[in-house]
Amino acid sequence: MDPIEPKDVDLAHEEELRLAALRRYGILDTPPEAQFDHLVELAVRVFDMPMSQITLVDEDRQWFKANYGLATSEGPRSESFCSVTIVQDGVMVVPDATQHEQFRTYPNVLGEPHIRSYAGAPLITPDGYKLGTFCLIGTEPREFSEKDQDLLASFAQMAMAELKLRQALYDVSHMAMNDALTGLPNRVQFRQQLIEACRRADVSGEKVVVGLLDLDRFKLINDTFGHLAGDNLLKDVARRLKEATATSDVVARMSGDEFVLLLTDVRSVVDIALVTKRLQDSFALPFLIGDQEVFVHWSLGLSVYPDDARELDALLGHADAAMYRAKQAGGGHTAFQRQEDQRSTLQVERLTALHRALEREELRLYFQPVVHAESRAVVAHEALLRWVRPSGMVSPLDFIPLAETSGLIVPIGRWVLRQAVDTLKSGRLQRLSVNVSAVEIRQPDFVEHLRWVLTESGVESRRVLLELTESSMLEPRFAAVLKEINTLGVRTALDDFGNGYSSLTALTNLPVQVVKIDRSFTAPIGEDTPAGHKALELVRGIVTIATALGLPTVAEGIETSEQAALLLKVGCTYFQGYLFGRPEPLA
Fold first, then answer.
1. What is the structure's pLDDT at 5?
2. Which tens digit of pLDDT belongs to each residue from 401-411?
3. Distance between CA 285 and CA 29 in Å, rounded?
4. Distance (Å) of CA 123 to CA 44, 88, 91, 96
5. H-helix segments, 86-145
């Protein structure tokens, strides 16, 4: 047996690292993407060549991410020009393959597509690994000047930049959809999966169960053992919850020590009882914090779709209320929230009062400043709706959903818009952003009403910014509405970025001019914890992508100078939060 040379071992190890780098980009066998197709089409025109590809060299094949002029999408690595290119330095040029000692016997030279000339520039990662090439192929002999080679290398750099942006988009999407501490789906991904589960249940006739699970007296563990130990315990809890549920079920982390369960394919209460029994058995054993055994108890509230509610927010609300009932009963119990509880006396009374809130002049606009991140100068304000009743102020979290489900948000929203524009007309504020709900956008005369308000007031449209959440942009027709709004000169912002259904899709496909980063991402920043560090990196990724798309960013929920300093370093354009001013009425 021939001895294995150290050089061969080094080459094999280097190839393993190169293939690992290729896998990290997650690009192999993905559908065509316009940004890569445009590059090869442009290269064909610039170099006047019949064929151009962006190739990726896999373990035993060459695969084309973008392909112009070739009928195939991949080929054996052993017959690939590009596999030779990636082991050389710089651009590889083959003026005439039929005269080349290595390539003249290749099947694609002897037969279709009868390659005669080739030029390939490697796609090089920031850490030096060559993933593939940007190549040009001709059916006639051709020389490539030094200038041609430099230009081809620039095309390869552009393709690599697109690959890096694509990976950054994926990384941010993954971070935005998963909890940084436990790796479980977060509330954003959970809502998506809940929507899909309910759709399937509508077809199958089966039930969907939502369970909110809160750990009892978890603060005591944090106070006794420290936050790091508390974080490790939450990871262990997440693992046990996953082990106690079926693979078709979903376990997500909502926040803090609160988890949410999504149980699908439920046919009867017996199925639910089996799950709760497995949960009880799973938590019967103690957890270990160092050498200390700790028993963890929980309170669980359940609601059933469609029995308890068909609206998702109502379904979650019922489970939340049931969980608190269980907690008040001493914890460690499960409870159901039935649909008849929805029409509680309080809600009926509140809905009746909301109908008369406008005529009683109980609605108010409060204004919170938005500042430039570097200069801290106030550049705009956000108009925020408040309901001040004789009995006291009602939280927007309580009355806004009520207004939306009842349809009252339409007249209330138009009142807000008019009041905001009148404030601008008075000259007391220079720029204002106004929140607009999906219900308002659905009104067929929304754009016309906006046009009328601006025309009648004489306020310049550039002074108005409409903030829309991603959930209000799900319907394809909303893109056309946004374009109409932009045509009026009114800017639009993607509000609560990352906390909706399709963050990256909304960001790249919708005509918005500003990205507002949700406070759930900025809140942990400044904490010397894994969650704090992950949050900062997530915001850095969001800012990088938004900047690449030419969009300024507003970081919401800034409460400390340390948060502001860190967010300034990652490139946020504007800040908003209690550090710079609480929402207040105008004097």
1. 53
2. 878 777 888 99
3. 45
4. 18, 12, 10, 23
5. 107-110
Residues 242 and 201 in one domain: yes
Question: pLDDT tens for residues 7-52?
Answer: 555 778 889 999 999 998 989 999 999 889 999 999 999 999 999 9
| Residue for token pair 């006291």 | 392
Give yes or no for a contact between 567 and 549, defined as CB atoms under 8 angstroms apart.
Answer: no
Question: Tokens 């607009």, residue?
Answer: 436
Residue with tokens 């952003």: 433
Residue 35: CB atoms within 10 Å = 14
Cα-atom radius of gyration of the chain, to the nearest Å? 29
Closest CA to 306 of 201, 190, 195: 201
Distances 103 to 63, 176, 435 between C-alpha atoms, Å: 19, 47, 63
Task: Confirm if 278 and 245 have CB atoms less than 8 A apart.
Answer: yes
Confidence of residue 218 (pLDDT cuts 50, 70, 90): confident
- From the list 43, 88, 84, the residue with the least C-alpha distance to 67 is 43
Token pair 């900047």 is found at: 547
**Bridge partners, 62 (sequence order):** 57, 75
Rounded Cα–Cα distance for residues 32 and 23 (Å):
18
Flag whether 525 is in a domain. Answer: yes
User: Do residues 427 and 299 share a domain?
Assistant: no
Structural domain that includes position 131 = 6-176
